[in-house]
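For concreteness, we quote verbatim a single protein encoded this way:
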Amino acid sequence: MSGTRRQSSPENTNMKTRICLGLVVFFTLSHGLFAAAENDSRKAELRALAGRLKYQEGQIDIRSGLATLKLPASFRYIDAAGTETLLSGIWGNPPSTKKALGTIVPAGFSPFDPQAWCVVINYEEDGYVKDDDAEKINYTKLLKQMKEGTHEASTERVKQGYPAIELVGWATPPRYEKQTHKFYWAKELKFGENKEENTLNYNLRVLGRRGILVLNAISGMSQFSRIEQATPEILAMVDFNEGNRYADYTPGVDKMAAYGLAALVAGGIAAKAGLFKGLLLAILALKKFLILGAIALIALVKKIFGGRKQITPS
C-alpha cells in the first residue's frame, strides 16, 4: 500500500549495526596503518638525509681564505650544503635566502638526538664595527629596552597569527674581549604557550676588518650549561686570516659599519638602520633558523621518533 513504511526486524537492525561498527573499525585501522606507513616513510627519508651529512675534522678554510677554523678533536664541521640539509631538510626550518657558511657540531653529533646542539656560521660584510663604546654600555638598561621592543613586536606577530614571543632575559650577559675582538651573549626566549622548554639564543661574534663572523648556537635551554662551557673553546678555534683581521683595518680606505656593539646586541646585524628596527623586523619575520631550530628539533624528534633519545641513521 502506498505510504506504508515497512519496519525492520530486530535481526536486520542488529546486522546494520554490526556492519556500521565494522566499517568504523576498518576505517580507523586503515587510517592508523596509513599513518604508520607515512611515519615509517618519513623516518627513512630523514635517515637518508642524515646519511648525506659529511663531517670534517681538523683545519677548515672559511669562505675562500676569509677565516680559518681549527677544530679540536671534540668538534666536527658540516659544510654549507650540509648545513642547509640539516636545518631545512632534517629539522624542517624554512629555507634561508642567505645560505650559512657551515656548522660546528660536537663529536658524536646526531641530528635526531633531542639533546643535540650546533653552532651555525655566517658572515656579514657590513664594515668595521667600532668597539670604543664597549665599556660604556649599560646592559641592564639595554635589556629593558630590548624587552619592550620584543613585546611590541610580539603584539604585531599575534595579529598576524603567529605565537607570541617573550624575551625572558639574559642567559649570559654580553661579554666583550677587547684583546681578541670577540663578543658573546645569550638570551632566553619563550614562544607562545610552550611549557616544555624555552629557546636558547646564544650569540658569538668575531669582529673583522670588513665585517663580522656570526656564530649562533641552536639549542633549547636544557643545553645551556654545555654551550656555556664550550664557548671559550669555540671562540678560540675561529679567527680571521691575516689581511682580514680587526687590526688590519685602514681608516679612510675600509668601510665603517653604521652601528656599534650595543646595536649588535640589541638588534643583530640588521640594526644598522636604527637600534631596534632590526630587532623588530627579525622577530616579525620569524624566518630565522636560529630561533626556530630548537623548536623544530624537539617537535620533530617527538613526532617522528616517539621521544626516543637518540636515533643512529642507518
Residues 268-314 have pLDDT under 50 and may be disordered. DSSP finds seven helices and eleven strands in the chain. The first helix runs from residue 10 to 52. Residues 8-52 form one domain.
